[in-house]
Amino acid sequence: MTKVITFKNRSVPVHYPSEQMSYIDLLHSKLLEMEFNFDFRKKWKRIKSVEMIRDVAILQYKDGTKLYLEVC
């Protein structure tokens, strides 16, 4: 399934298995924690999509590289 999440006026699609809907809430909470992390905010501007696998968010950049973020 796909859902769009917005952080700092930028919307990004989040792909996740249908049985893992609760992890989307964890991702949203983690993004709120990272709100004042300016290094992360610079990285967020280059994110193309997010894939959730259990409690790990795989943030994919436009150039194909990935950043793994634990959301627990």
Briefly say what this structure is.
It is built from two helices and five strands. By secondary structure, the chain is of the alpha+beta class. It has one domain.
SSE layout:
Elements lengths: L1 E6 L2 E6 L6 H12 L4 H7 L2 E7 L2 E6 L4 E5 L2
Parallel strand pairs: 2-3
Antiparallel strand pairs: 1-2, 3-4, 4-5
**Helical residue percent band:** 25-40%
The succession of helices and strands, N to C, reads EEHHEEE
Overall mean pLDDT stands at 93
**What structural category do the secondary elements indicate?**
alpha+beta
The 3D shape can be described as: globular
Radius of gyration: 11 Å
Structure in words:
It is a single chain. With 72 residues, this protein is α+β, with helices and mostly antiparallel strands. It has one domain (2-70). It is built from two helices and five strands, in the order ββααβββ. It has helices spanning 22-33, 38-44; strands at residues 2-7, 10-15, 47-53, 56-61, 66-70. Strands 1-2-3-4-5 form a five-stranded mixed sheet, covered by helices on one side. A hairpin with a 4-residue loop joins strand 4 (56-61) and strand 5. It starts with a strand and ends with a strand. 10% of the residues are buried. The mean pLDDT is 93.
